[in-house]
Amino acid sequence: MTRIGIISDVHLAPRGEPAASWHGVYDFQGSAGRVSRALEVFKEASVDGLLVLGDLTHRGDEDSVAEVLALLDQARCDVWYAWGNHDGPRRRAGPSQGVLADGLRVAVLEIERTPSGFRSCAPLHVESWHDDLTLLASHFPVVSREAELTARGYAYAGDLEDQEALCGALVSRRAPTIAVCGHLHVRDACARASLLQLYSAAVVEAPFECSLLELERSPGATRLTLTAVALGPAPSADAPVFVADVQVWEFDGVWSPTEPPPSRTPAPPPPAPAARRSPG
């Protein structure tokens, strides 16, 4: 079995940062402590690697970047960074492609700012993945969730300008791809044939969590278990959680849940406070 830790949208901010929110109020003060608790969870689980899915900082300032990287340097495993739109231009802090335990291929989708938004800045070289099971770390989703979130009354943080092309390239693979992302600040999942997209909730706002991904492979079959781990404080009833705390998916030519994942449709969120800011 391969175990991977996942953490996203820490939004570490300088002291005195004004109040902000997206789906809920940001708890800037507690973000660093929750990162430390997540690392304890991953250490206890003996993870083989850690995926950090961007927006480590809120302002992209050098002091916040240095602080959050110092925290993550305590992880006793390989760490893969997918920088987010809040992090600013960064030098790569880890590898962009490689192989983890049991031959699991890992790739990072790197992004760049454009005059009108963001797009991928380096080819994925999907053809070089051959028939390997591949884990793709990205800040932005490769499967858009705009229609689903707006229908529920939630704000949408936006997609990459080349999102449709990226999604098409991944769906066309016969071999399985697991894409994990942050950015939307929701816990969600969807499948498109050989592509499974997992949306990771935020550390800075409810539901305040990290995730543990476990992969079991046998000839002709792949089984994935994704467990959400609460880091506190307790989220409100309208936190953006659309799938169960534990999800189980299997790949047998296509991805499918072992049973229909429980999904709750929360009440529309309350009006946002005046400090609300877009993660974009």
Any descriptors?
disordered C terminus; seven-stranded mixed beta sheet; 28% strand; 15% helix; 15 strands; Purple Acid Phosphatase, chain A, domain 2; six-stranded mixed beta sheet; 280 residues
What's the topology here?
Blueprint: E1 2-7, H1 31-45, E2 49-52, H2 62-72, E3 78-81, E4 97-99, E5 105-108, E6 111-114, E7 117-120, E8 134-137, H3 146-151, H4 163-171, E9 177-181, E10 188-192, E11 195-199, E12 209-218, E13 221-230, E14 246-251, E15 255-257
Task: Please give a structural write-up.
The protein is α/β, with parallel strands linked by helices. It has one domain: 4-Layer Sandwich (Purple Acid Phosphatase, chain A, domain 2), CATH 3.60.21.10. The chain is 15% helix and 28% strand. It has helices at 31-45, 62-72, 146-151, 163-171; strands at residues 2-7, 49-52, 78-81, 97-99, 105-108, 111-114, 117-120, 134-137, 177-181, 188-192, 195-199, 209-218, 221-230, 246-251, 255-257. The strands form 3 sheets. The protein has a 7-stranded mixed β-sheet with strand order 3-2-1-12-13-14-15, covered by helices on one side. Strand 10 (188-192) and strand 11 (195-199) form a beta hairpin.
Percentage of residues in strands: 25-35%
- Estimate the mean pLDDT confidence: 89
Q: Which bin fits the share of residues in helices?
A: 10-25%
Secondary-structure-derived class: alpha/beta
Q: What is the CA-atom radius of gyration, in angstroms?
A: 17 Å
Q: What is the distance, rounded to the nearest whole angstrom, between the alpha carbons of the first and last residues?
A: 36 Å
CATH topology: Purple Acid Phosphatase, chain A, domain 2
| Assigned CATH class | Alpha Beta
**At CATH's second level, what is the architecture?**
4-Layer Sandwich
